[in-house]
């Protein structure tokens, strides 16, 4: 979805949900956050037991210009 100068990827489920602790042993969520940040965006995770999970990644539309500046 485009929201102004940003593209938003939003994934939701109505599953079991979970308590998000930043000390987990996996790299999946960490990797997603790092990739969003590398593109000048942000990563949001909302989850709670019994309430499902929502992941949102917001990335600015001018990513190619930003990447050119990095080289």
Structure description:
- The chain is α+β, with helices and mostly antiparallel strands and 71 residues long.
- The protein is 27% helix and 34% strand.
- The protein is built from 2 helices and 4 strands; from the N terminus they run ββαββα.
- A 4-stranded antiparallel beta sheet has the order 1-2-4-3, covered by helices on one side.
- The longest helix is centred in the middle third of the chain and has 11 residues, at 28-38.
- It is flat, with a radius of gyration of 14 Å.
- The termini are far apart.
Fill in the keyword field for this structure:
71 residues, 4-stranded antiparallel β-sheet, 2 helices
How are the SSEs placed, and which strands pair?
Blueprint: E1 2-3, E2 6-13, H1 28-38, E3 42-47, E4 53-60, H2 63-70
Antiparallel strand pairs: 1-2, 2-4, 3-4
Helix content: 25-40%
Low-confidence spans: none
Q: If strands are numbered along the chain, what order do they take across the biggest sheet?
A: 1-2-4-3
Q: Note the main sheet.
A: 4 strands, antiparallel
**Tally of alpha and pi helices:** 2
The count of strands amounts to: 4
Report the C-alpha radius of gyration, rounded: 14 Å
Query: Topology as H/E string?
Result: EEHEEH
What does the average pLDDT come to? 86
